[in-house]
Fold this protein.
Amino acid sequence: MSLAHHYIDVDGVNIHYVESSPQASQPIETLVFLHGFPEYWGTWRKQLAFFGQQYRVIAPDLPGYHLSDKPTDAAFYAVPNLIGFMGKFIGAISPNHPVTLIAHDWGGAIAWPLAAFNASLLTRLVILNAAHPSTFTREMINNSNQRSKSAYIHELIGAEAENLLTQDDYRYLVDKIMQSQQPAIFTPDVLDAYRQVWRQPGAINGMLQYYRAMPQLARNDTQTDVKHDTNVSSCDQVKHTSELKIPNIRINLPTLVLWGEQDLAFVNENLDGLIEYVPNCTIKRFSQTSHWIQHERPNEVNKAISDFLTSIQ
């Protein structure tokens, strides 16, 4: 498979993406892949190689990441703006046909509401270990284990977050974030490739902007006084659980959720009651798999997505 690298201007922001498609006389379906934190388009290499034999496949670097532009205005990274922005990206790269959107982590945090509010752009939705906004907020309110798993976000919105992530050759990202059920997945060579991604000018700040723009975050259970916590960048963002509002994100598209049950960021209860918000939803669980499901189970992930694509025409 040969990947072509392209740039496209969306509202004055240059987005880098890779693309591949087989030779075909008839139009073929487009699959768009959205990565999460702290990755880049390369997280999808094995999916691009597999699906590029039959589909047109596109994987961008999200704004703020790797080779895409990195807007400095924090408001750009607010989820409503990201939804509209990535919707325009999809409309630009596939102006005449809706696409299947496949997303992981922060890519999924964008994809869920994008599918809810811009459904005409999509035919199907595939989510890999990204909690639905409604069930995630519910668990943040009611589940102390989810609050504990989300405690790292308080570090990422802190005033010293950039120093934290860059010190000791990105040790925090390597040792705390890129933790896999299969240590051989993130080899020294793979991690060196990620370090090159993180070294792109402005990339660490760009990645952190997504967290800084989160509209609400439950304070830690041990955090008694938000206003005087010097590690928190926005007191308005960090709220008592009684102040959190559960968004009403309802999706009618055929949806496949692939979920590694050993996720260090999300509790499995995020899947409970999901069908209330996404009635046409299929969930496939992977018991001995972490957050990095597409890395650890590429063949099984590819088969599950392929079966879903062919079953939902």
About this structure: The chain has twelve helices and ten strands. Confidence is low (pLDDT under 50) at residues 225-234. The CA atoms of residues 80 and 113 lie 8 Å apart.
